[in-house]
Amino acid sequence: MQRSTDFEKILQTNLGLPAERPLDYDTPLADYGLDSLTAVNIVVDLEQGFDVTFPDDRIMFAMFHTARTLWDALSELTS
């Protein structure tokens, strides 16, 4: 699965990043201002946008370390 502009839009919107700012997949999401409420909103938006459900036991802090770790978790659900 290639990186999706939908995925990037969801992260940019929830993190308050301008659309013209490229998302660095290796920057810790905490550096972009990720907090627990934002993480919940991202999960909801990803589930709705990609028609998947993250199992409760998969939603851990490590999944939200970077855009890459979150993308990898999403990719597992969509493959």
Automatic annotation (TrEMBL):
Listed Pfam families: PP-binding
UniProt KW Phosphoprotein keyword: yes
Listed InterPro entries: ACP-like_sf, PP-bd_ACP, Ppantetheine_attach_site
Keywords, ordered alphabetically: Phosphopantetheine, Phosphoprotein
All copies of domain Carrier, residue ranges: 1-78
UniProt name for this protein: Acyl carrier protein
Organism: Streptomyces doebereineriae
Lineage of origin: Bacteria, Bacillati, Actinomycetota, Actinomycetes, Kitasatosporales
